[in-house]
Amino acid sequence: MKSEANSMNQYARMIMCVLATILATAASVAETAEAPGATTDVNAVKDITAIERELAQQPSMKNLIQYYAHNAVVLDAYAPGYYRGSKEIYAGFEQQFEQSAGFTGQIADLSIVSHGELACAALQVRFHFKMKSGQAGDLTFRQLDAYRRTGGKWLIVQQHISQPVDPKSGMGIADARMPVRGPQKWIAKSLAEPAVDIAQARKEIVRWLATGVLSPDTDTLMKYYGPGDDVIVYDVQYPPGEFRGLAEVRAGFAPVMNFTNPKVKILALDIDTDGAFAVQIDVQDITLTRKDGTQRNFMLRQSDCMRRVGGKWYSMLEEISMPMDPKTGKAVSDPASFTARTARR
To answer: What is the rounded CA–CA span in Å between residue 51 and residue 147?
Structure first.
């Protein structure tokens, strides 16, 4: 009975993940419009806010799916945790909605930035849920959403939802609350540089990722963030779960940069860019050799909101995660789980 109860608890968390997504976007309405660091494009905030209100009022993916681009990519908090295209997104989320009896939530922290036809939102969502089974509880999610305006309408093109992991036990932390720090204030001049050709930008971003994931030390890794201090990273481990500003990013990553000979295979990668601003979402197969000679192989998911400054790309918003097993609550770290998932399509 204890095992069954635990399984039900984890399944409930999985079901509520998508509800957290919709709730998060809806609750952002009141918190983004007047946020001093939200964006320099007030109209973009208003447009996205209107869409997110609609998302929150609809109880079914039959209505909500219209707000996702047909080729959108979603990294969900719970395994299998990868949906590509509106058909998979619909199928993956609709079954979760059917199990919910209701929920209430709060956006604890929210930062939005836009650039022309692209926009990103970084959220920390806390909410209380109730299932039709009678089970209830509290959950916290980190979320990084990317939007593109197409034909005058903002659509979700990339979505990354996650919970952090306890590094000692490898278990996902369902209600990992991070300090409330308010909206990030963006450095306007870092978003005002001219764009390059789209094809060139895409090649540069592929190279940025390919070289960045192989960073052998903290100093090298830090060259891929910034260039100013207006940076947020949702890390895979908790505590703290979030780094804000370059000093925190450096201090947070330094303890895990204790390896040699990193090898990385990019299992999936999607990029959208206007030549000066970009969003990317990927899945990685990583093998590291520790300084004691032992090796570790694991899967990591990463998404970034990026800007091009002085001819180089820098991450300004980033989320790093592993999906959680909905039955056990443990982080799914085996890259084979992702390759097997995509092979079954």
So the answer is: 11
Report the SS3 class of residue 242.
Answer: strand
Which of 317, 250, 320 is CA-nearest to residue 113?
A: 317
Q: What is the pTM of this model?
A: 0.87
206 with 271: CB under 8 angstroms? yes
Distance CA(165)–CA(173), nearest Å, equals 6
Q: Please report the sign of the dihedral spanned by the C-alpha atoms of residue 316, residue 314, residue 268, residue 239.
A: negative
DSSP state of 329: -
- CA dist 125 and 156 (Å) reads 18
Tally the residues of the chain: 345
| Main-chain dihedrals φ then ψ at residue 130, nearest 5 degrees | -140, 130
Query: For the stretch 98-136, what's the b/e string if a residue is b when 16 or more beta carbons lie within 10 angstroms of its beta carbon?
Result: ebbeebebebbbbbbbbbeebbbbbbbbbbebbbeeebe
Q: Do 234 and 317 touch, CB atoms closer than 8 A?
A: no
Residue type, 160: H
pLDDT for 88: 96
Question: How far is it, in rounded angstroms, from Cα 134 to Cα 184?
Answer: 38
Rounded Cα gap, residues 126 and 84, in angstroms? 26
Looking only at the bridges linking them, the beta strands covering 68-75 and 153-162 are parallel
Residues 6+ apart with CB under 8 A from 73: 82, 83, 84, 157, 158, 159, 268, 270, 281
Token pair 């960045």: residue: 212
Calpha distance 18→135 (Å, rounded)? 17
CB 257 within 8 A of CB 218: yes
Element (H, E) at 160: strand 153-162
- In angstroms, rounded to a whole number, what is the distance separating the alpha carbons of residues 316 and 303? 11
Note the pLDDT tens digit of each residue in 7-34: 434 444 444 444 444 444 444 444 433 3
pLDDT band for 190, please (50, 70, 90 cuts): confident
